[in-house]
Amino acid sequence: MKEKSLITLLVAVAFLVVVGFVTLISTCIFSAHADSIDVYREAKKQGLWLVIGLGVCWCSATLDYRFWRIRMWWIFGVVCFLLLLCFLPGVGVEINGERRWIGWGPLQIQPSEFSKISVVAFLSYWYARHPDCGKQFRRGFAVPVFIVGLMIGLVLVEVDIGTTIVLAVTAFLLLYVGGLDWKYLMSLVLSGLAAFVGMLSYMPDRMSRIMAFLDPEKHKLDVGFQQWVSLMALGSGGLTGRGLGEGRLKMLYMPFAHTDFIFPMIGEEMGLFCTLAIAVAFMTIAISGYSIAMQAPDRFGKFLGTGLATFIAVQAFLNIGVTTSLLPNTGLPLPFISYGGSSLMTGFLAVGILVNIFRQGHPVEGAGSDWTMNERITPRA
Predict the structure, then answer these.
(1) In 3D, which of 293, 305, 350, 285 has the Cα closest to residue 57?
(2) How far apart are CA 228 and CA 216, in angstroms?
(3) DSSP one-letter code for 38
(4) What average pLDDT is seen over the chain?
(5) What integer is the mean pLDDT of 341-353?
(6) Collapsing DSSP states into helix, strand and coil, what is residue 109?
(7) Percentage of the chain with pLDDT > 70?
(8) Region 289-297 average pLDDT
(9) What order of strands is seen across the sheet that includes strand 92-95?
(10) For site-directed labelling of 81, which of 87, 155, 156, 307 has its Cα 20 to 30 A away?
(11) How far apart are CA 371 and CA 358, in angstroms?
(12) What pLDDT, on the 0 to 100 scale, is given for residue 365?
């Protein structure tokens, strides 16, 4: 598995991208943004982002992953600045009461997506630089948690609960891998739960989602409508699906069918077998990513690979859990599948870094035509 981890990673990602793009073409013509002039507008934009994402993946695969350690503070600062721009009038874009985007004309990006890479890079840098600080309160707990908490707080203020959960879970795992003392870990869990309960009291719409999760039948025609239609789509697809393009609930019944709730659309058209294959693909990405991280030549690479594989797996778990009504609705795209350029670029960036970590852990003399083994590009020290 160790030697084949790169191949399995790339095959799983390629499968998800193909399934996502095909489903997007089938679904986007019924989206709320589609018009009579160009009903495939979202598909074309996603195709452009796909090309850009592949370029980002190529660059990050050839750029030495230690670049993220050397330029970590600059990267962290730029991402925080972009998050702050979401609240700047004229630059920040508000959609459905949430300020998650910045845009200039037709171009819009979601900075919270890039915060995932930034948080992983910072914690990897910190615990690689301070390998034995797990039992120290200031260096092992207070400083890294405070710095990461600043970025997570900016994302939370944007009312991006899904990304906040992804960041918190990923950071918690890296703190655990970094050797943080159990008493500090448990204090984080308890304080996180208290903060979550307090947040619900100030966000009644989020509390209503919790109530809809606890009693879906009662709320199926209001706040729980998306998850109710999602279950109908998955159930009507059966084992093999209605057939590609034959889905019915995408026809303006399902809100955000091409973004957060694209998974049940896949289930309706391609059936249980395809949805299970998607779940297996994400598990493969996680296992391959952890395997690559274990083979990294240094401590920073091990942390970085672990964090990147974790945030992809956690985000996929949350999205699938929401769309199958196993979790309350959080509003989170499915990596490599849902419509969204920022999410796609972040996923490809993470894959490219994993490829480079694999390359650095498997140096090959006189590499031939294999693109993953081309000449290394190292940053200036």
Answers:
(1) 350
(2) 7
(3) -
(4) 86
(5) 95
(6) strand
(7) 90
(8) 93
(9) 92-95, 98-104, 107-109
(10) 307
(11) 13
(12) 47
